[in-house]
């Protein structure tokens, strides 16, 4: 069993509901500090975050569909970093992956990586909507484009969220060169531990408190 402290150090405590308010973000930050998690992840409109303290601040770009012009994604990333984001979780154009346009997909990712400067880019591939072959190629292209992480899911796609199979495949593809973030539908300590065992180095959780309390 993974220790509570070890799991907390992997968590992006997440609030991406469209109806979230600034007060909700303040509550998220307070809870994140109390839980001792690594990071918070909020919508770009909620930046800059008031008094994040030691917390890493992450945001999302092209969220949740990924079907945004590359120059808009890059501009969104640049603005997010200017507003205090240290990490940028970008959604790929999932249709490009499905259609096999991996050159276009890589260029899209590279544009965000370049616009993000020193910020870490996590590439959300929406693994539940892709075949194993598409997952592998999306991970390869993320690495080639300079990303720091690959990430399973937005948590908003009807195909579903993270699976241990996808995490394992992603880890196998990127080795120890990139991080792997599992997110989407991880609601129990057992599910979190399953993702870590499969190779996840980061967890995107909205129910962090309940998961940590049950460890």
TrEMBL record:
Reaction equations catalysed: 2-deoxy-D-ribose 5-phosphate = D-glyceraldehyde 3-phosphate + acetaldehyde
Pathway: Carbohydrate degradation; 2-deoxy-D-ribose 1-phosphate degradation; D-glyceraldehyde 3-phosphate and acetaldehyde from 2-deoxy-alpha-D-ribose 1-phosphate: step 2/2
UniProt keyword Aminoacyl-tRNA synthetase present: no
GO MF assignments: deoxyribose-phosphate aldolase activity
SUPFAM superfamilies, A to Z: Aldolase
Subcellular location, record wording: Cytoplasm
Active-site residues, Swiss-Prot/TrEMBL: 89 (proton donor/acceptor), 151 (schiff-base intermediate with acetaldehyde), 181 (proton donor/acceptor)
Protein family (similarity comment): Belongs to the DeoC/FbaB aldolase family. DeoC type 1 subfamily.
Its job: Catalyzes a reversible aldol reaction between acetaldehyde and D-glyceraldehyde 3-phosphate to generate 2-deoxy-D-ribose 5-phosphate.
Name used for this protein in its record: Deoxyribose-phosphate aldolase
Top-level taxonomy: Bacteria, Bacillati, Actinomycetota, Actinomycetes, Micrococcales
């Amino acid at each position: 069993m993974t220790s509570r402290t070890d799991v907390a150090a992997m968590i992006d405590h997440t609030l991406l509901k469209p109806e979230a308010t600034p007060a909700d973000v303040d509550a998220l930050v307070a809870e994140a500090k109390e839980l001792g998690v690594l990071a918070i992840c909020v919508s770009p409109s909620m930046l800059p975050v008031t008094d994040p303290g030691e917390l890493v601040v992450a945001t999302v770009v092209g969220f949740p569909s990924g079907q945004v012009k590359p120059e808009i994604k890059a501009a969104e990333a640049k603005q997010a970093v200017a507003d205090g984001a240290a990490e940028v979780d970008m959604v790929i154009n999932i249709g490009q992956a499905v259609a096999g346009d991996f050159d276009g997909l890589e260029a899209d990712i590279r544009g965000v990586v370049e616009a993000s400067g020193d910020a870490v880019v996590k590439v959300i591939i929406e693994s539940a909507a892709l075949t194993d072959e598409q997952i592998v190629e999306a991970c390869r292209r993320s690495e080639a484009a300079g990303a720091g992480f690959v990430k399973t899911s937005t948590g908003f796609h009807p195909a579903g969220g993270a699976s241990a199979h996808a995490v394992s495949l992603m880890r196998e593809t990127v080795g120890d060169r990139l991080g792997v973030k599992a997110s989407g539908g991880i609601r129990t300590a057992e599910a979190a531990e399953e993702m870590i065992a499969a190779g996840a180095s980061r967890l995107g959780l909205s129910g962090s408190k309940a998961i940590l309390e049950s460890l």
